[in-house]
Amino acid sequence: MVIRWWHLYKLIEIMVIKYFSSFLFFCFFTIGVTRAQCEGDAFFDSCMSKIKTYTFLKTYTSKIKKSKKGKERTEMHSYVLSKGTSYMITACSSTGPEAKLIVTLEDGNHKPLASTYSEKTKKHYPAIGYNCQTTGIHYFIFTYDKDMIEGCGVSLLAFKKM
Amino acid sequence: MVNMNSSKSIFKHLKLNAFISLFITVLFFSTSCQKKQTLTENGSTPETKVAKPDTTVIAPEVIDGLLHSIPSPLEISLLIKKTVVSFISDITNPYTNCDNYTTPFKQAVNLGVYSADIGYLGLYNKQTVSTLYVRCLRKLADELKVGQFFTSEKLQRARTYSTHPEQQDSLLTLITMSFEEMNEYLNEKNRRNVSVLIVTGAWIEALNLSLKVYEQNPSQALLERIGEQKITLDNIRLVLSVFKNFPEFAPLIEHLDELKKVYDRVVITYTYGEPEFSEEHGMLVVQDKSTSKVEITPDILNDIRALTIRIQKLVTAV
Fold it and tell me: How far is A101 from chain B, CA to nearest CA, in Å?
């Protein structure tokens, strides 16, 4: 068997093309997978299933990129909650190794009322139920349980009359 | 011979690989280009801008936050439903008016008005008339180039849902979701003037409905809720102030400023109480022990009613 220089050249070219195709396939699917973690109908529907007998009001989507240790990674949203209404605030995160979303409810003076994560027991609650007796602005603070790791999540606000 | 065959197969392999790579690359880039093109087409603002929003007052992100903080008209509708058992007809804006809203201002503000009306009708399970209002909503959305959030598929799904008595809220959930998606899209496309008008229209109609219901069926809970609108009115005035340079916004802002003067006479007091916690079905439940009290005299209520009727007429007049 005689190996000529152009055979080698073609072999190298084939290898390059093969790796390039694999790379494209890899990019195509990993982008899809990353997006699917906190987006898509299935993820949203599983979060919606938590609100049960409550009526859906709002969606808050949160995405946090990698950050340096100790650097604060919070997002704040506000909503006027009404007296005599029972609210549910969910915290839905992907099931992967990403940081989990923590939702903290604060009153109008930024006094924390409750959180979906207990520091004491290291437990994540899927939702907070809040029986509101004071109409006024309330804050939802979104944080994550791990530093330096990407995280994403969805929080739904739902209500029913007390 | 062996050499010739192997080189032919190498070439075939090469061609196939090159074709696959080319196909993937073209597919990858063409889809992203196509998506961009569609978004641009949909994002074109239908109205001619004669004025610019005054973003020195509030940053766009703050406007988005304030718009998000305004309660859904659905909450008031549910309170009405809980307080008043019987349905009161003829208090909503007639759906027959919708063909006569021809300016983007009227279309946007009445898209909000009709959303509040659908909330009210939906909670009393008025399916036939709700469908007519949804059709009207879709027409206005199409005119405003946001019809993609109220497609036939979505509405068909809503109709299917509404036939199940145990899922009477499904239509409202779908409408709420569509409005949420639409507002997000409008904000992304820098069409916040449209989202602000939709939210304002919905708030005005919800207040108007509660005042009309209260007139026929007075209740303390509804009276307090009417008084509490003082908080939301402040936020609405704040987001509207960004568009004070838009000539069509001026009469609406003036009227709401007048309403604000009346609402300033409503007194809301708060008393703090330590919240109590419990765990129910794996969920953390917080019992708010603080209280709020709303003081609103019959005179104030009459002034609020008179002004709200004027504002509602201003926005819904054909």
Answer: 15
B275 and A28: CB-CB below 8 Å? Answer: no
CA distance B219 to A159: 21
Strand partners, B47: none
Mean pLDDT of chain A: 79
User: What is the residue type of A126?
Assistant: P
How does pLDDT run across B189-221, given as a tens digit for each residue?
989 999 999 999 999 999 999 999 999 999 999
Q: Concatenated DSSP letters for B260-312?
A: HHHHTT-EEEEE----EEEEETTEEEEE---EEEEE--HHHHHHHHHHHHHHH
In a domain, A150, yes or no: yes
Residue B254: what pLDDT?
97
In a domain, A136, yes or no: yes
**Range of the structural domain that residue A115 is part of:** 41-161
Average pLDDT over residues B247-270: 96
Q: What is the pLDDT of residues B23-65, one digit of tens each?
A: 444 434 433 333 333 323 333 444 444 567 776 667 888 888 8
CATH value at residue A56: 2.60.120.380
Percent of chain B, pLDDT > 90? 53
Which residues of chain A have a CB within 8 Å of the CB of B176? Answer: 56-57
B265 or A1: which carries more pLDDT confidence?
Answer: B265
CB contacts, 8 Å: B232 with chain A: 80
**Residues in chain A within 8 Å Cβ distance of B285:** 128-131
For chain A, the domain total comes to 1
Give the CA angle between residues B190, B195, B196 to the nearest 5°.
105
Q: Is residue A72 part of a domain?
A: yes
Closest to A156 in 3D by CA, of A48, A81, A71: A48
Q: Is residue B6 within 8 Å of A11, Cβ to Cβ?
A: no
Contact B31, A32 (CB under 8 A): no
- pTM above the 0.80 mark? no
Domain coordinates in residue numbering, chain B: 58-265+301-316
Contact status, residue A145 vs residue A124, Cβ threshold 8 Å = yes
Contact call for A114 and B228, based on CB within 8 A: no
Q: Indicate whether this complex's ipTM tops 0.90.
A: no
Nearest to residue B66, comparing CAs of A62, A76, A143?
A: A76
* Contact between A129 and B286 using a beta-carbon 8 Å cutoff: yes
Taking each helix axis from N to C terminus, what angle separates B250-263 and B298-316, rounded to the nearest 10 degrees?
Answer: 170
Q: Among A61-75, B93-107, B114-128, B161-175, name the one with the lowest average pLDDT.
A: B161-175
Does residue A97 belong to any structural domain of this protein? yes
How close does chain A come to B224, measured CA to CA in Å? 9
